[in-house]
Amino acid sequence: MLVTSLPWRMESQHERSADRYRAGVLKYAQMGYWDPDYEPKETDVLALFRITPQEGVDPQEAAAAVAGESSTATWTVVWTDRLTAADVYRAKAYKVEPVPNSTEQYFAYIAYDIDLFEPGSIANLTASIIGNVFGFKPLKALRLEDMRFPVAYVKTFDGPPTGIVVERERLDKFGRPLLGATTKPKLGLSGRNYGRVVYEALKGGLDFTKDDENINSQPFMHWRDRFGFVMEAVNRASAASGEVKGHYLNVTGATMEDVYERAEFAKELGSVVVMIDLVIGYTAIQSISKWARRNDMLLHLHRAGASTYTRQKNHGISFRVIAKWMRLAGVDHIHAGTVVGKLEGDPNTIRGFYNILREPYNPSDLESGLHFDQDWAGMRKVMPVASGGIHAGQMHQLLTYLGDDVVLQFGGGTIGHPMGIQAGAIANRVALEAMVLARNEGRDIWNEGPDILAAAARTCQPLKAALDTWGEVTFDYTSTDTPDFVPTPTPA
Amino acid sequence: MRLTQGTFSFLPDLTDDQIRAQIEYCLEQGWAMSIEYTDDPHPRNTYWEMHGNPMFDLHDAAGVMVELVDARATFPRHYIKVNAFDSTKGIESLRLSFIVHRPDPEPGFTLERHEVEGRHIRYTVRAYATDRPQGERYP
């Protein structure tokens, strides 16, 4: 098997066929980018694309074109290939299969030699894999569904600066999901008023509060105002509860110098966590990750902008790939879906995202959209964040779907509480602890959840008010980003 | 003031039956139980005193409860917590930790503000109890 991939063997064949390098245009498949006999090496980077070829374009040729355009090819033969070990550097499409229940889409598996990539650089990796090929005319649409990174490449990344285990040890919080809330309204509050919301929510019982993605440094609240008032609130709440508390201070700025300046100030004020938005870019994320590692800081990532390219199934990038890139790039928290809240989230697909972030090893599991085995080689784990339209009445569903290692963020579900922000936070914390207690006692929380909440509400007026206000609120819409493989129902 | 460290501090104090049920759950997961106590409840006081080593070889909740009864009798005016430790590779840390005994009353903490240059403030959280020597902190 290995023999076929040795460069000298292929090269000798090509030398026998001078036709291969005669000036002109060849099909990508003829240029060597389609190789159905290729056995991927353990050290190869693998990618799975969903391709929608233009009418009349052969799927294998389309797959070869994707392999070519994301590695060495250009549209015509170039003799300078012969100055290189071209067969090593050529990506190889090695399998093409129709997408289940689709007439025009195909899954194309492509293998890339590890030496095509700069060690430890998401920017370089992505410039190759998604750099040019998404605008390629012979394809109607293209989606990067999944990737497999060899251990040798994983080990070139630092990964999360803190990780789930050490985050819990620093916070001294075990055995339950963490609780958070995003400060609302997201725009317009002065620093002083903003800190009030933070204080009430943290004192009430949340572990974290959060800047929203678009809170940076606006005329109504400059960043230094916010940082100062927020840290007063965090420390007051910590003294009132005896717990470590935190607020994700968003250090996103116009330049990397701004980002570092804001992060340094957060550190100076004693914050345990800083936050960035995905829109700052992969290089900036890796830079601030290294800063966070040097400064013992949790790094929270808000996936601002991700849905522009992750949500539609025919074109873009699956969030499972973004999740893999961000675990490599090194963030401690990332928003990864709620299943039950207001934002996109099919349960099986979300389970796949959470497994990527939290497990030491991902076996392939088509039901949750994981097409490859992925060994994380000891890399630290990323805490997923569930945020957007969730409330205390869903606690049994959240705990069942998402497990313990997650931050549950109730923004409106804390701040909009009829008895006030502290009461909102109390309701969430009591609902959570009651549900964890009941689950550990062996109760069937999926079915008994509403009863467990009602019982806890008998000694907790804020929880009763929360259930009365939001108990019936659901967001029941069909997901767009769903797995293509569903288990065949077995007769009972 | 109620110290709300630990997994279940927002619920009414757990009964011994409830504590035993949590311990049984932990033992079923293969976690090792341990008991710790302190009279310094500062949120960053990581190292509470160990009431013996973690009970790696004890797989019976009743045995852990015996240790807990002993800890309460010995340290009635301390905080006592039960921890569950998971030695699985990649975790090797606590999986559950909850307070099972607390002094009464709990005076809580003060927040000291040290005003430095500009408008900066350096914050220190200090337990009122730790003004007194160890062992004499709660009446």
Strand-helix topology:
The complex is a heterodimer of chains A (492) and B (139).
Chain A lengths: L6 H10 L12 H5 L11 E9 L5 H11 L16 H4 L2 E7 L7 E7 L9 H8 L9 E10 L2 H4 L8 H9 L6 E5 L8 H14 L3 E3 L12 H19 L4 E5 L5 H13 L4 E5 L4 H13 L3 E5 L4 H4 L5 E2 L1 H11 L3 E3 L11 H12 L2 E2 L11 E2 L7 E5 L7 H8 L4 E3 L2 H4 L5 H20 L4 H13 L3 H10 L22
Parallel strand pairs in A: 4-10, 5-6, 5-15, 6-7, 7-8, 8-9, 9-11, 11-14, 14-15
Antiparallel strand pairs in A: 1-3, 1-4, 2-3, 12-13
Chain B lengths: L15 H13 L3 E7 L10 E2 L10 H14 L4 E8 L6 E9 L7 E7 L5 E7 L12
Antiparallel strand pairs in B: 1-2, 1-3, 3-4, 5-6
Helix pairs in contact in B: 1-2
- Please, how many helices of chain A? 19
Strand percentage of chain B: 25-35%
Strand order of the largest sheet of chain B: 2-1-3-4
Could you state the order of secondary-structure elements of chain B as H and E? Answer: HEEHEEEE
Round the mean pLDDT of chain B to the nearest integer and report it.
96
Main sheet of chain A: which strands, in order across? Answer: 5-6-7-8-9-11-14-15
- Span between N and C termini of chain B? 16 Å
* Helical proportion of chain B, percent range: 10-25%
Radius of gyration of chain A: 25 Å
Give the termini distance of chain A in whole angstroms: 44 Å
Dominant shape of chain B: globular
Shape of chain A: globular
Quaternary assembly: heterodimer
Q: Strand-residue fraction of chain A? A: 5-15%
Structural class of chain B: alpha+beta
* Major interchain interface with per-chain residue totals: A-B, 38 and 44 residues
Q: Count the strands of chain B?
A: 6
Could you name the ranges of chain B where pLDDT drops below 50 across 5 or more consecutive residues? none
Would you tell me the structural class of the helices and strands of chain A?
A: alpha/beta
